[in-house]
Amino acid sequence: MLVAVVASAQSITIKTSTILDGKGGILRNKMIVVEGGRIVRVRDARGAATYDLTGMTVMPGWIDTHVHLGWHFNKEGRLEQGKEAPEQAALYAEGNAYATLMGGFTTVQSVGSAIDGDLRDLINAGVIPGPRILTSLRAVTENTGDPEKIRAYVRKMKEDGADVIKLFATASIRDGGKQTMTDEQVLATCSEAKALGLRSVVHAHAPGGARAAVMAGCTSVEHGALLDDATLQLIAEHGTYFDPNFLVLHNYLDNKPKFLGIGNYTEEGFAYMEKAVPMMADVMRRAMAHHVKIVLGTDAVAGAHGRNAEEFIYRVKDGGQPAMDAIISGTSLAAEALRLQDKVGTIAEGMEADIVAVAGNPLEDITVVRKVGFVMKGGRVYKN
Description:
Elements: E1 12-15, E2 18-20, E3 26-28, E4 30-35, E5 38-44, E6 51-52, E7 56-60, E8 62-67, H1 86-102, E9 105-110, H2 115-124, E10 132-135, E11 139-140, H3 147-159, E12 164-168, H4 183-195, E13 199-204, H5 207-215, E14 220-223, H6 229-238, E15 241-243, H7 247-254, H8 256-259, H9 267-289, E16 293-294, H10 310-317, H11 323-329, H12 332-337, E17 355-359, E18 372-377, E19 380-383
């Protein structure tokens, strides 16, 4: 059941026994005081509280840096190909956003569909419930044109309201992940984005596309199943963020009948994705060894919305990431990658009151991220 307690100047108090603050700190027996949608104090717990989360683990609202909110299965149980009525597509996107919020994610980056913009604006206006959304609205590919055309396209994306620029430097893993955009096209995209004050996130499975992205000053490399050590070291040296994704591969394989036969969702494509699962775990371990800034993103497509927290579990159990590091990757580090570090991602005075609580201790058993019992976004409680 949706509980929407409106944020106001009146204090909301949240009693806790364990807080993971999003930056690696553990706070014990604290009271979080919220006013006007922000955390105004974190003090010792005493007295009565509006919400008592004693016995739960409290964290900043989680952040997913890579989702596709518009993707869904149609009434035939197949991946929708954009043939439905716009109003139906909008309802599915809204449902995906709501499921994501209920799953503990209060901020997402959706890259990218035109519908994301309207969804973002309605959520920001408080008309419908959902996570805070940043969106690219659409993407740049090798077919966008020469560097000058790409620069004009990026300017138009900004004019249309894009928060970030998405580009495809390589093919899908289902097509082998080879580089598709030229180095000059990648440079034009990311340099123009930077000149406009926008970030840029790059779909790049293979080293060539990822290296081009890093050298062009792009913000984040997404996926990276085929990256070698030299490329990972380059990513680390340049401070580029890296977003390997586990959930998307498992989700495709788990929902194979709903995708198979559509576009490049062929038997060969699924074979590539099956091989990519252990490869992603290997890349994750090597990225940690190179001290790469690893952020949490799921590439959530149809079937994955609301299950975003599974990414924490795959990264810890398969990728070998320490549980605390995984939580940081989905809170303060993800916020930093989105340039929202002064607003979300940490439980501290002055931050937006985005708070999630789970039953159990994720540092001891990461699977308790599935047990979300409390969700607050901007001081408003949506799940309790």
